[in-house]
Design a protein that fits this description.
This protein has 224 residues and is α+β, with helices and mostly antiparallel strands. It has two domains: 33 residues; 182 residues, OB fold (Dihydrolipoamide Acetyltransferase, E2P), CATH 2.40.50. The protein contains four helices and eleven strands; from the N terminus they run αβαββββββββββαα. A hairpin with a 6-residue loop joins strand 6 and strand 7. The N terminus is likely disordered.
């Protein structure tokens, strides 16, 4: 009797998770069909207290990443269930023996997702904006796997940090929006052209310094 109960309980949990996933996927699909869907969500800005610690750690750890690539982004953002990804073509391999130049890959991160839970509805990015199609980025990854649907290789970002480890080879004008209270969430529409989402000038200075240090180690883009 107990085994039967456990079996039924397990099946119910599985069905509940499956239904939840289907409903969420439909919600993503409905929202992204709207031309201005990003105007309806918020994004978190980087606080100084996080930037100081994380940038210092990343400065030491990123050059040790298993996968280091210069890529050119070829695809707009794709929202999947609890994860976002973008397609890119490899322009240079600095680390990662299983990858080759000119190979097309997906890039994804545990930081990247469209969170439609109303607390608030947000696009989670690890304080770094979506990658622009046609632009080159320095990418630090920790794992290469195969996409089961397409057979294409996918690179998971080096996700041991709060800040997503991708850096544009272009220069960007970063907008800082004031925040109040305990939250650093702001309207994505207000910062949509920034590379980094920072709550203060000092936080922005620290993450831009990290970017310049990494690009000096792995040059090849358009930044001076």
């Amino acid at each position: 009797m107990r085994r039967k109960f456990l079996f039924v309980y397990t099946v119910c949990i599985f069905l509940a998770v499956m239904i939840f996933g289907i409903v969420k996927k439909q919600t993503y699909t409905d929202l992204v069909k709207q031309d201005n869907y990003l105007a309806q969500v918020q994004v978190a800005e980087l606080a100084e207290s996080i930037a100081e610690d994380q940038c210092a750690i990343m400065q030491q750890k990123l050059p040790e990443a298993d996968v280091i690539l210069r890529v050119e982004v070829t695809g707009e953002i794709e929202h999947l269930f609890q994860v976002d990804r973008q397609k890119a073509v490899i322009r240079e391999v600095y680390a990662g023996n299983e990858l080759e130049k000119s190979e097309e890959i997906y890039i994804f991160s545990q930081h990247w997702q469209l969170a439609l839970d109303g607390n608030p509805d947000s696009i989670e990015r690890g304080f770094v904006n979506m990658m622009e199609v046609g632009t080159e980025y320095l990418v630090f990854g920790e794992e290469v796997c195969e996409d089961l649907e397409t057979g294409m290789l996918s690179v998971k970002l080096y996700d041991d940090f709060y800040i997503a480890p991708i850096f544009s080879y272009d220069e960007h004008r970063n907008v800082i929006m004031p925040v109040w209270g305990d939250t650093t969430y702001v309207s994505y529409q207000d910062v949509m052209n920034s590379e980094f989402f920072a709550a203060t000038e000092e936080a922005l200075r620290m993450v831009e310094q990290l970017k310049n240090q990494m690009l000096s180690l792995y040059p090849g883009g358009k930044i001076d």
